[in-house]
Write a structure and sequence with these properties.
By secondary structure, the chain is an alpha+beta fold. It has helices spanning 2-18, 23-33, 39-51, and strands spanning 21-22, 55-59, 66-70. The chain has a 3-stranded antiparallel sheet with strand order 1-3-2. Helix 1 (2-18) crosses helix 3. The longest helix is centred in the first third of the chain and has 17 residues, at 2-18. The mean pLDDT is 89.
Amino acid sequence: MSNVVNLEVEIMNLLKIHGSLSVAFLTRFLNERGVFCTRQKVERTLRKLVEQKRVEAFYTNGNKRKHYRLR
């Protein structure tokens, strides 16, 4: 369970630093930081954060890719 909380904290820190990011960039930055995870795990964690209303999802530039930012 602490691993999931750690992933949530890392995602929140990245969104605080970079603003809005897509799942691909979040996964890349997490792996560069040494938090080895897959895209699916990041998406699952982001869905939980959206349900908790800590992060919001939106589409930009009509490219059909979700981006996420802090609320």
